[in-house]
Amino acid sequence: MLPGRYVSSATRPRSGDGQHAHTPTVLFVDQSGELGGAEFALLPLAAACAARSEVVLLADGPFRGRLEASGVRVQVLNDARVSNIDREALRLNWLYAAPAIIRQVCAIAQQARRFDVLFLNTQKALVLGALGKPLHRRQVVWYLHDIMSRDHFGRVQLMIVRLLARHVADRIIVNSSASAQALIELTGLPASAMPVVHNGIDASVFTQLDAGDLPALRRRLGLPETAWLAGLFGRLAPWKGQHIAIDALPELPHVHLVLVGGALFGEDAYEAQLREQAQRLGVADRVHFAGFRDDMAAWMKAMDVILHTSTESEPFGRVVIEGMAAARPVIATGAGGVMEIVRHLENGWLVRPRDVAGLVEAIETLRTTPELGQRLAAQACADVQRHFTLDRYLQQMTDVIDHARR
Ligand code: UDP
């Protein structure tokens, strides 16, 4: 992809704006080298700001290549001792990791001093970037992609985030009202302190892909050409609920399930469990593990229906808007940020979390009444092109960044 691929009017320096002699420069920090939703959200933003920014990653991985291919300058500041601190081990590990943490705080602060704004895209980035504020004294923008509750985070982690959000972050951006609500409950900060910016996507990548010859597309992807395919997209993780979809299969003898996504964050045991579950239920021949894929548009267009089965509230759910852009009917868990995207039986179908019977009913109804699926998908595609555009997303994000300097 060429540098500036994502540049929109939102990111061009404004002329004649007395308060903006120049648009601020930005250091983005993200803890992961893997490609998760937070990283896909940062990618077009960093690309749009490439001329005035750099990205620091706290771990190496395929995300670095994606950023560089978009013309973004990237540095990897990796320290295994810091990377290995996880939620469970936080209390025991931090003493052992303290020297490495201090080194990383200083290293980020040193880089941050070269920029006007420090933009922290993940939790670990928040902690390491915000702790260094006395050293770098830069405006701190935190982009929250999570629902900060005990379902997902440990007590210590929540306590640290609460302190940093209240006392160090200058600007907070949240990816949905659901994420905002949890942060308000955690911190007591007012809603006005955290603008909601929903993710946006380039829907043309989906709408322009010609899936007229469906059997040929499926052949190319190694999928059964004539089966009725339900696709579930996202990294393999228990809370993403791939096991819920497998549980539904014995009741759906005409349906094949395609799981697209890898075990990104050490969830190999869960993948093994899913394979064992499919064997045990006698549906293994109808479950296709595709692994991580780059070409979401092709894989989504190859499906008859797109499932989202998260067992907990999804903070936003990029895969939901992508499925809608692919003009396929989407069945999604009705909780969290998804409620800000999907309206039941208007542009999709909402099912309660962990409701296997509800999922079976939704899939079977859409399989046997294709005209309903087409109506929902057409509305969904129109809604995404109206409300979840990349231009709108970049405009709102750069507005916050550009005002952070004042
Ligand atoms: N994704 C991908 N290839 C895969 C699986 C997922 O590129 O094999 C992308 C997907 O298109 C989406 C992102 O990963 O843009 C996942 O974002 P989402 O908000 O759905 O979930 P998160 O990772 O933030 O929990």
Automatic annotation (TrEMBL):
<feature type="domain" description="Glycosyltransferase subfamily 4-like N-terminal">
    <location>
        <begin position="36"/>
        <end position="204"/>
    </location>
</feature>
<keyword id="KW-0808">Transferase</keyword>
<dbReference type="InterPro" id="IPR001296">
    <property type="entry name" value="Glyco_trans_1"/>
</dbReference>
<dbReference type="Pfam" id="PF00534">
    <property type="entry name" value="Glycos_transf_1"/>
</dbReference>
<feature type="region of interest" description="Disordered">
    <location>
        <begin position="1"/>
        <end position="22"/>
    </location>
</feature>
<feature type="domain" description="Glycosyl transferase family 1">
    <location>
        <begin position="217"/>
        <end position="380"/>
    </location>
</feature>
<dbReference type="InterPro" id="IPR028098">
    <property type="entry name" value="Glyco_trans_4-like_N"/>
</dbReference>
<protein>
    <submittedName>
        <fullName>Lipopolysaccharide biosynthesis protein</fullName>
    </submittedName>
</protein>
<dbReference type="GO" id="GO:0016757">
    <property type="term" value="F:glycosyltransferase activity"/>
</dbReference>
<keyword id="KW-0328">Glycosyltransferase</keyword>
<dbReference type="Pfam" id="PF13439">
    <property type="entry name" value="Glyco_transf_4"/>
</dbReference>
